[in-house]
Amino acid sequence: MKRIQEGIHQIVTPFPEFERAEAYRLREDLETHPRVTRSLPYVLPYFIASRGETALVDCGWNTDDAREALDEQLSEAGAGIGDIQTLVLTHAHPDHCGLAGRLKDESGCAIWMHDLESPFLESRYVAPEELLDRMDEWFGRHGVDPIDREEIERGSMPMRFFVARFQPDRPLQGGEMLKVGDFAFQLIWTPGHSPGHICLYEPNHQLLLSGDHVLPRITPNISLHPQQRPNPLADFLQSLETVAKLKVKRLLPAHEWDIAWFQRRIAELLAHHVERLEEMLAVVRGGEAMTAVEVARSVTWATGSYDSFIGWMKRAAIGETLSHLVYLAHEGRLAQFEEDGLVRFRAA
């Protein structure tokens, strides 16, 4: 646990493949010696307590180790799971909402989450069969060979077993206020990484709890898929511009570590996507009309080549490639069309 300031504590909860002691060590180590890891080792929930009122922002995976890590660090902050009054979820990905159902059962906390995230709770984590059928058709249209489709479309299915079932008590739209004693957080809708992603901004203390929207080193995955908004990269870039207008002294992300160089990081993310768009544009302009899979095979990836990826990584790469190609098509820089059952892109 790290005390950010009086009343705000950063908590470390491990991913399923990490022991909590290792996650604690990595959190401390990565802040002073940043390096690339093959997977994210932990999630950073934030516990807020002031004048007898409490809130937790995000909660981690539904594993016993993550729950014990949360309980252990809440105790260090002078509280327990039963003291959580409000649980705010930045979005419905399993590493952010997995424990929500268990925490609700134990504490009776009110769960807040954006209304656009609620449909995912049933379709992804309870009854995914219809979604899998949609994904099979989707990946086929975008160039995935039938023999590869099952591995790619089911790549994220094991994650659903790390989400305890729940329903939000308060569906959000963005623009609401969360008051916790002396703290007053503005809830800001920041779509892109997920359709209903939210950030929490405390203007008096100039703090931004950014979820996965802005991270110190990792570029959040911005994917187009059947459950996304039509142009998620445009959403993400606009959301970056929205938060860039805020006065932020401390960025409190859901992964990695907290930083003071907020504006610099915004500029880095914007520059990254400009570079990525130019790279994909050059690939498409250099050949015939291409599917998203063909483009994904031709561009560079920080973690290796597309063909070396396992299923869920290919899925993320295809989604990210599509979000950039569709953005370019909306800008009129590429043409998008469907032919013989395949969606293709070519120079405009």
Give a short overview.
The chain is an alpha/beta fold. It is 38% helix and 20% strand.
Sequence-ordered SSE layout with sheet pairings:
Layout (H helix, E strand, L loop, with lengths): L1 E4 L2 E3 L2 E2 L5 H13 L9 E2 L2 E5 L2 E5 L6 H13 L9 E3 L5 H4 L2 H8 L2 E5 L3 H8 L3 H13 L4 H8 L16 E3 L4 E4 L2 E7 L8 E5 L4 E5 L20 H13 L5 E4 L8 H24 L6 H7 L12 H20 L3 E6 L2 E6 L1
Parallel strand pairs: 6-7, 7-8, 8-9, 13-14
Antiparallel strand pairs: 1-2, 2-5, 3-4, 5-6, 10-11, 11-12, 12-13, 15-16
Helix pairs in contact: 6-7, 7-11, 8-9, 9-11, 10-11
Structure notes:
The protein has helices at 20-32, 64-76, 94-97, 100-107, 118-125, 129-141, 146-153, 232-244, 262-285, 292-298, 311-330; strands at residues 2-5, 8-10, 13-14, 42-43, 46-50, 53-57, 86-88, 110-114, 170-172, 177-180, 183-189, 198-202, 207-211, 250-253, 334-339, 342-347. The strands form four sheets. Strands 1-2-5-6-7-8-9 form a seven-stranded mixed sheet, with no helix packed on it. A five-stranded mixed sheet has the order 10-11-12-13-14, with no helix packed on it. The model has no long low-confidence stretch (mean pLDDT 94). Helix 8 (232-244) packs antiparallel against helix 9 and helix 10 crosses helix 11 (311-330). With 348 residues, it is α/β, with parallel strands linked by helices. The chain folds into two domains: 2-126 and 158-271, Metallo-beta-lactamase, Chain A; 129-153 and 273-347, Arc Repressor Mutant, subunit A, CATH 1.10.10.
